[in-house]
C-alpha cells in the first residue's frame, strides 16, 4: 500500500449540486478516509487519505463533479499521510 494525504479545494458551481454527497459515496466505494465540506466562499474543501491510486481517482472525479456541477478549478495540496480518519464524513 502506498498511502497518501491530499487536501483539495474545488471552485466553480460546486455547492447545492450534491458535490459533498457524491464525493462521500465515491470515497467510501474506494475506501478513502477523510472529510468534505462547503466553505463560506463557495468552494468545497476535502481531505482524502488512502492508497495513492484510489485518491487520484477521487481527484479525477472531482474535476468534473456531479451532473449539475460546473468545476472551474481543483487546487491540490499534497501532505504527509497521517491515518487520522476512520471513515469519510461530510462536515456541515
TrEMBL record:
Q: Which Gene3D superfamilies match?
A: 3.30.70.100
What Pfam families does this protein map onto?
Acylphosphatase (PF00708)
This entry's Enzyme Commission designation comes to 3.6.1.7
> Which GO molecular function annotations are given, in alphabetical order?
acylphosphatase activity
InterPro entries (UniProt xref): Acylphosphatase, Acylphosphatase-like_dom, Acylphosphatase-like_dom_sf, Acylphosphatase_CS
Under the heading PROSITE patterns, the entry gives: ACYLPHOSPHATASE_1, ACYLPHOSPHATASE_2, ACYLPHOSPHATASE_3
The entry assigns this protein to a family as follows:
Belongs to the acylphosphatase family.
Q: What is this protein called?
A: Acylphosphatase
Q: Which organism is it from?
A: Candidatus Nealsonbacteria bacterium CG08_land_8_20_14_0_20_36_22
Amino acid at each position: 500500500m502506498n498511502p497518501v494525504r491530499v487536501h483539495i479545494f474545488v471552485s466553480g458551481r460546486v455547492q447545492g449540486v450534491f458535490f459533498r454527497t457524491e464525493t462521500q459515496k465515491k470515497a467510501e466505494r474506494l475506501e478513502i478516509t477523510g472529510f468534505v465540506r462547503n466553505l463560506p466562499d463557495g468552494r468545497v474543501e476535502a481531505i482524502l487519505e488512502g492508497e495513492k491510486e484510489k485518491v487520484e481517482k477521487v481527484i479525477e472525479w472531482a474535476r468534473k463533479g456531479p451532473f449539475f456541477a460546473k468545476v472551474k478549478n481543483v487546487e491540490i495540496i499534497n501532505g504527509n499521510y497521517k491515518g487520522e480518519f476512520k471513515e469519510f464524513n461530510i462536515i456541515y
